[in-house]
Amino acid sequence: MFVSSGKELIEICNKENIAIWEYTIRGEIEKSGLKRTQVIDKMKHNLSVMMSSSLYAQENNVVSVSGLIGGDALKIKQYANIGETLTGDFMVRAMARAISSSEVNAAMGRIVACPTAGSCGILPAVVISAWEKLKKSEEDLVHALFTASGVGIIIAKNATIAGAEGGCQAECGSAAAMASAAVVEMMGGSPEQAFDAAAIVIKNVLGLVCDPVAGLVEVPCAKRNIAGTVSALTTADIAMSGVKSKIPFDEVVWAMYKVGRQLPPELRETAMGGIAITPTALKLKEEIFK
Amino acid sequence: MRDYGVFDIIGPVMIGPSSSHTAGAARLAKVARMIAGGKVIKVDFLLHGSFAKTYKGHGTDKALVAGIQNMDPWDEALRNSFEIANKNNVAYNFLETDLGDVHPNTVKFIITKEDGSVTQVTGSSIGGGNIIISDIDGQKVEFTGEHPTLLTQHKDLPGIISKISSILYEENINIASMKVYRNGKGKVATLALETDSILSEKVMNLVGEIKEIVNVKFINPVVEGAF
């Protein structure tokens, strides 16, 4: 069975001199009974869907079913093309990718839940952007997705990845932690550095509530996918510089879960608190469901 | 501590926006169609709880109509399911209702088929695209459709289940779990039997030949790459 903590996973990886992605592939082979090539092919298929979802809304004017969001990926992409951004072409393009998947999702397009549909923009944007910039192979990109899922499995086992249970910190927070760890391994970082990155990301969004306007996965979800993407990418650099998380990953995940349980139900995907009950949000809700 | 696989975390591939309100709804409807069998000409969707309140914004309505036409939760044509239904002369209605003390994402399907027969199925979308079927034609049941499921209605007499399991044994199909439901002794009983391998037309026909069996259905999992 897959290990239950980051600590154990790091120990095994160090002992066997393997990366998190390798441990995760082996674990999946054991669990599913599939061959290695089958497990990798399944992930390649998911990757192809991620490639499309993170690109589509940058090139097409996508509008959500409710009409609440759409067109922002296109705007950000066009802004990047002008070449006068503050945070640079790489970061702005990553942000466009993130919101593209979120817009495709809200418009009833095809996405990969990673770990959820509401947070589906983060992982593709982060790993694809890093892969492109670092000029890595497709194999490395697929491996990054296994690193991400290995970290995600441990979060899901010990805490939750559902907004209804743990708030947005559990959805977008987990997605960003998974993505940051994946990039660290892609950059040649150690399993320990990957978990440091994941821990730092979660600490920085601890307490983030789930407060969707009109109960729809659109506002503020799509832009939180951008925020998660930026956090994952910048934190990968922090971890690669050698900065460690003072609090170990497993304890951070424990804290995240505890905070999630302490959140009142109003702030856990019920649309009864936070941004969802602002006057503007309530007006939008009325217009959508009239 | 629940055990997770890689593709529980990165996956499923699905049509958005919501795994519970869109992907789960499509899966529920597809399973309801398999339970009903035959050619569907009309469906009334009785929507409860969160489904009733938010179905338009989440595309739950489109997902349900897609599933009832056998479309998968990852089929990009899902968003055009109304047009496809109109073309195929499948009528559909949505009714906001209160189904009582059930899961917030619950729908009751009233499915009319070409021969005029009606099947009623109730199920819930319980998160992450996973579902539970809880009622078929007034008979309480409980199965998820995650495993291949053989569903029979048979006369409540000794030996019927043993006949079914013998057929599965001969076809080298392992039984994962089995539940029998009945409304009263000696009447019609419902069996939901989950197996480890995909059920074929042949198995269904063999089971159907048992004379005490009133009807038999099989539901193979709605999973990408399951076949």
Can you offer a commentary on this structure?
The complex is a heterodimer of chains A (290) and B (227). With 290 residues, chain A is mainly α. Helices cover 67% and strands 1% of the residues of chain A. In chain A, helix 9 runs antiparallel to helix 10 and helix 10 (191-205) runs parallel beside helix 12 (249-262). Chain B has 227 residues and is of the alpha+beta class. Chain B folds into 2 domains: 12-137, 2-Layer Sandwich (60s Ribosomal Protein L30, Chain: A), CATH 3.30.1330; 149-219, 2-Layer Sandwich (Alpha-Beta Plaits), CATH 3.30.70. Chain B has 7 helices and 11 strands. At the A-B interface, helix 2, helix 3, helix 5, strand 1 and helix 7 of A face helix 1, strand 1, helix 2 and helix 3 of B.
Keywords:
heterodimer; A: 290 residues; 13 helices; 67% helix; B: 227 residues; alpha+beta; 60s Ribosomal Protein L30, Chain: A; Alpha-Beta Plaits; ACT-like_dom_sf (chain B)
Describe the secondary structure blueprint for this structure.
The complex is a heterodimer of chains A (290) and B (227).
Chain A: H1 6-16, H2 20-32, H3 36-59, H4 72-82, H5 89-106, E1 110-112, H6 122-134, H7 138-158, H8 163-166, H9 168-186, H10 191-205, H11 221-240, H12 249-262, H13 279-288
Chain B: H1 6-9, E1 13-15, H2 19-36, E2 40-48, H3 49-58, H4 60-68, H5 81-87, E3 91-97, E4 105-113, E5 118-127, E6 130-136, E7 139-143, E8 149-155, H6 160-170, E9 175-182, E10 188-195, H7 201-208, E11 213-219
Parallel strand pairs in B: 2-3
Antiparallel strand pairs in B: 2-4, 4-5, 5-6, 6-7, 8-10, 8-11, 9-10
Catalytic activity (chain B): L-serine = pyruvate + NH4(+)
Protein name (chain B): L-serine deaminase
Domain ACT (chain B): 149-224
